[in-house]
Amino acid sequence: MDDVFEQIAELESEMSAVNSQLASHEMKSKARVAAEDASEARRKLSKAQAEVLDLEERISQLESEAAPVRERISSLQRSSPTGSYKDEEAKEHQSQVSKARLEELEEQELELMESLEIARAEVAELERELESAKQLFDQLQSSWSETESGLKAILAQKREALESLLRELSDPDRERYMLLSKQLQGSVFAFVSNSVCGHCGLSVSTKIIGRLKSQGQSSLSVMERCEECDRVLLIR
């Protein structure tokens, strides 16, 4: 029976290692970072695109303001002289005011056009950045999916082997194992190595180690347990 318990403990340890790989595999971490990078690039791109739209709208508004001013200047230039000094002076004043306003609007539009050019270049750069991030994520995700499938297949094989070993236990031991597995949320056994529990690292007394070495462990109900993590202790 000791041999079966040891085999179960070995399988638990191997399954724990595979589960740890599934939870924290380097490829999985890289894929997560790539996903975060793509999300950040998408956020920046959205902001830059909104800025482009805002600049285009402001330029359009300036064009709408400038159109009647240009028309007013053109109309004043086309009008025939009245012969009245005051009328001509007023017309000239209106023309100068309109030209000054048009120049102001055109300067603002020019500044916005320059800003728009920069913003569009930024959008193009961010689009390339996003595409690159998405491609990297897809590659890493694909690699991780293959790795994950392989690890899950290994885990399934070990779980099947564990179930086979559990069938060799007596009914009371098998029921006890299932209960402990549920309570401990994982492995039931822990090997003692260098006088410490292999699961939690608690020092195991020489008295308990002596019992582990000398006593045959035939039932889970009487086997030594770790005082810290409550695992069933085994010694090779």
Provide an overview of this structure.
The protein is mainly alpha-helical. The protein has 2 domains: 18-168, Helix Hairpins (Orthogonal Bundle), CATH 1.10.287; 172-235, no CATH class. The protein is built from 5 helices and 3 strands; from the N terminus they run H-H-H-H-E-E-H-E. The chain has helices at 2-24, 26-78, 85-166, 171-184, 206-214; strands spanning 189-193, 196-197, 232-234. Helix 1 (2-24) packs parallel to helix 2, helix 1 (2-24) runs antiparallel to helix 3 (85-166) and helix 2 (26-78) packs antiparallel against helix 3. Residues 19-44, 64-95 are annotated as: Disordered. It holds the Pfam family CT398_CC. Residues 9-170 form the CT398-like coiled coil hairpin domain. Residues 25-43, 85-94 have a biased composition (Basic and acidic residues).
Please render the helix and strand layout as text:
Blueprint: H1 2-24, H2 26-78, H3 85-166, H4 171-184, E1 189-193, E2 196-197, H5 206-214, E3 232-234
Parallel strand pairs: 1-3
Antiparallel strand pairs: 1-2
Domain CT398-like coiled coil hairpin: 9-170
Biased composition (Polar residues): 74-83
Region (Disordered): 19-44, 64-95
